[in-house]
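Changelog excerpt

This revision adds worked examples to the README so contributors can see how folded entries look when concatenated. The first example is reproduced verbatim below.
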Amino acid sequence: MQEFEHLQSLWQSHTVEVKISADEMLAQAKKEVNGIRSRSLLNILGMALSFVAIATLWLFFDFQSWTTHVGLTIIITAIAISTFTLYRSHRIISRNDFTVHPKQFLDSLKTYQLSRYTLYNKLYWFYAAALTIGGILFFFENLSLLDMWIKASLIIFTIFWMVFSATVLRRSYMKKEKERIDLLIEKFERISEQFTTGL
């Protein structure tokens, strides 16, 4: 038993230092940066398509109630503001070439991380509230035509979806993105360190 404990303590105290060259780290970082940029562009594209779809709905249907027009205005404004914020965030990450200026890109990456934090903690609540209020006003005209159980089902589903999105989905996405960006920041710090020390 003592031999096993001795072997176990030797095994636990044994550390292997893995050295990765700056070129390998840059290749990994390039892949991750391209992934972040692609997801960012897809978010912007999705929001732009939502804007166009709702604007088209507004143009091609003749809504009678003023509440519908106010609801659509609120929804379109919220989508436009969110799209603009996503675009500004994307410009932060795509502005610098990380292979030419790793230190500047590292600073941009930290700024990007702060902008994403703001997006998910402040802008999210504005966006969710605007969509909720806009949706209520938009559907006010059409809900009066539906049966009571359909109205109740829609209201319950909407409340459930908003709570689920605000808690589970948002937190999960924030955690994954924070881990991904933290790892990327760590890699760029190590790359910058290797360049400055000449390794």
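The second example, added in the same revision:
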Amino acid sequence: MNTQIVMMEDGIVVPPKCYKIIKANLKDKSYVSAFVMENRKFIDNEFGLSSFVVEIDRLEKMTGLTFNLGKY
């Protein structure tokens, strides 16, 4: 991910993007979704959540991390 930081108007320093991984275990199957969003004060409502979805492999490459999510 980009290592630049963003200074918010109230003096808080944040990375330019953040990610979230959600794993749901339902009965005999697991579901995983990953999202990457820009850290901005407001995000337009015209963008649906699906526009921020990324593949787990891509997120691992972006972050340099390995997410041990087991079978999904």
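Reviewer comment on example two: The two ends are 24 Å apart (CA to CA). Strands lie at 6-7, 13-14, 17-26, 29-38, 53-54.
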